[in-house]
Amino acid sequence: MKSFLISDNKDTIVGLRLAGMNGIVAVEREEIIKELDKAIEDKDIGIIILTEGIFNKVKDRVLEIKLKESIPLIITIPSRYGMRDKDFITKYIRDSIGIKI
């Protein structure tokens, strides 16, 4: 199975193409949803990777897909601008299990 990246900047695309991954740069919500739907229809794609900026624009659609489909796996990565907070892992654990560490 292949992986496919939908990014909001060219730098992330270039970096992952060096690792052999295909992808596309999309900016507008409609374009992102169109590319996301095309990637879901492609049965060769097992993992769809979204940058955080892309995920934030289509969060509702991604969550809808995750509830209905088990494949492809949709994951989110930080963009080159590092949108995540410094302590995002601690916050994620605290929100997930309710334990402060």
What is the level-2 CATH architecture name? 3-Layer(aba) Sandwich
Helical stretch tally: 5
How many distinct domains? Answer: 1
* Dominant shape: globular
Low-pLDDT stretches are none
Instruction: Give the end-to-end Cα distance, rounded to a whole number of Å.
Output: 37 Å
Structural class: alpha/beta
Family: Belongs to the V-ATPase F subunit family.
Protein name: V-type ATP synthase subunit F
Keywords: Ion transport, Transport
GO molecular function: proton-transporting ATPase activity, rotational mechanism
Keywords:
101 residues; alpha/beta; Rossmann fold; four-stranded parallel sheet; 22% strand
Topology:
Blueprint (H helix, E strand, L loop, with lengths): L1 E6 L2 H9 L3 E4 L3 H13 L3 E7 H6 L1 H10 L4 E5 L10 H10 L4
Parallel strand pairs: 1-2, 1-3, 3-4
Protein name: V-type ATP synthase subunit F
Family: Belongs to the V-ATPase F subunit family.
Keywords: Ion transport, Transport
Q: Overview of this structure, please?
A:
By secondary structure, this protein is of the alpha/beta class. It is 48% helix and 22% strand. It has one domain: ATPase, V1 complex, subunit F (Rossmann fold, 3-Layer(aba) Sandwich), CATH 3.40.50.10580. It has a four-stranded parallel beta sheet with strand order 2-1-3-4, sandwiched between helices. The radius of gyration is 14 Å and the shape is globular. The mean pLDDT is 84.
